[in-house]
Amino acid sequence: MLKFTIDCDVDTAWRALHSPRIVGELYAPLLQMQPLLPDGLPERWTPGDEVPVRLAAFGRVPVGTQLIHISDRTVDEPGGPVRILRDSGIPLTGPLGALDVWDHQMAVCAQPGHPGRTLWRDRLTFDGPTAALLWPVLWVSWQARALRVRALSRRWARDPDLRG
């Protein structure tokens, strides 16, 4: 689990979480997400979406396929509402394909006392026969992901596709 503050308001962060383009930028250039459906990726993730994607290292080396399954929920906490986007899809092929549990939840809420800033929480739960072997690789990729979220969030507020 990662927990940190980013430099944009919570509404912008929530819209960024629902943007396949932004999600793709979080892993680029190391990993690129390519749609397997003829219509491509949706413009916005919406609850109930099930989208198969191919993952490629540096856009060229196949890493495997994954099914993305999106759901949203809001939890009322004493500090205010927490919005959670959940990808409960599953890796289908490649090194992650041996995992039988994949639960990625990303939560955003307003940073108390800091208007215009967002508290970001990112949790991945996974399990399966190769989970122990994959843990170090996933841990490192999660740290890199956190750095990308922090860096990219600074420009999300200026992104016309993310404005309310």
The total of helices stands at 3
- Which residues form runs of ≥5 with pLDDT under 50? none
Strand content: 35-45%
Q: What is the ordering of alpha helices and beta strands?
A: EHHEEEEEEEH
The residue fraction in helices comes out at 25-40%
Largest sheet: 8 strands, antiparallel
Principal-axes shape call: globular
How far the N terminus sits from the C terminus, by CA atoms, comes to 28 Å
* Rg: 16 Å
* Structural class by SSE content: alpha+beta
Mean pLDDT metric: 93
What does this structure look like?
This protein is of the alpha+beta class and 164 residues long. The protein has 3 helices and 8 strands; from the N terminus they run E-H-H-E-E-E-E-E-E-E-H. It has helices at residues 10-17, 20-27, 131-156, and strands at residues 2-6, 31-35, 50-57, 61-77, 80-87, 90-91, 101-110, 118-127. Strand 3 (50-57) and strand 4 (61-77) form a beta hairpin.
